[in-house]
Records
---
Amino acid sequence: MTRVDTQLVELSAETTSPVYITGPDYFVPYVRDPAKHLFVHREAADGVPGVVELTEVGELGRTDWTVDGFTLTGEFEYEEFEGEVSVPVERVLAETPLTREDFPLSFFKVVAVDPDQRSRGIGTQLTAKAIAPLFESPPVVAFIWLRDNPANQRLAEYYASGQVATFEDYFDEDWDCPDCGYENNCTCDVMVYGWFGDERDRAVAASNAGADVEAETETEGGAGVASH
């Protein structure tokens, strides 16, 4: 069977972009650093599936697991976070309730599930396990890629206080997007969700509630116009 780290690279290429995670060594810091986390959902050789956190580098070389989903999360210093997002961090701070004092920042980086294994609750299981250690060190943010599959957005809405920003045309020019087509520039947007563990949560929830009411009113008005 194939090594776990090789399976993770292949799964990332299939579900995100071929340029996102390009080699097995990418996962080593998430196993070695206690402030970062790699969770996988695997079908073990003994037939018992489930979510586990990899905490030893040697586990990346296992060949007795079939991996059908993974998450990457962790706490990131300001300079590290610069390399994790495709917009300047100063812009993130300007357009969200985040401040420099929030670093190191808990970041839910990615959840990926084998397309052939979706609708089994794997993403939900992975997220529940991966989000738990982050809630111990708020704030927590997630950048959700707005795609045809809304599962990740639903999970973010469940755990976060609400949406705090949207970045249009988020990805760099060298991002190979499976939705836009590898031969085209990616025009996908990213929505930022957050949970702060302080009074900012109340403000975010109130802002989102107001936006929902406004959107509902516009939808009702649109439907009325369409009926004439």
---
Amino acid sequence: MNREALLKLRERYKEQITRYRQDIEDYRSGRFTMRSNTGTGFVDVSEQLAVSLEGMIERLEDVIKTIDDELAKE
């Protein structure tokens, strides 16, 4: 990838991380809840979603680090 494409991708991932962090805050504060029907009733799965988003943030941060390493080589 060329430098410009890498910079665009990096910026897109940074924006995604910001959105994920807002979603995590919303899930944990109770502003937004997600419920799942287990067959025996509804269960709040907001915390599980927040933890999943934290994992996504970690992966995106790893990708950003890889992009930064590529940009440093140029």
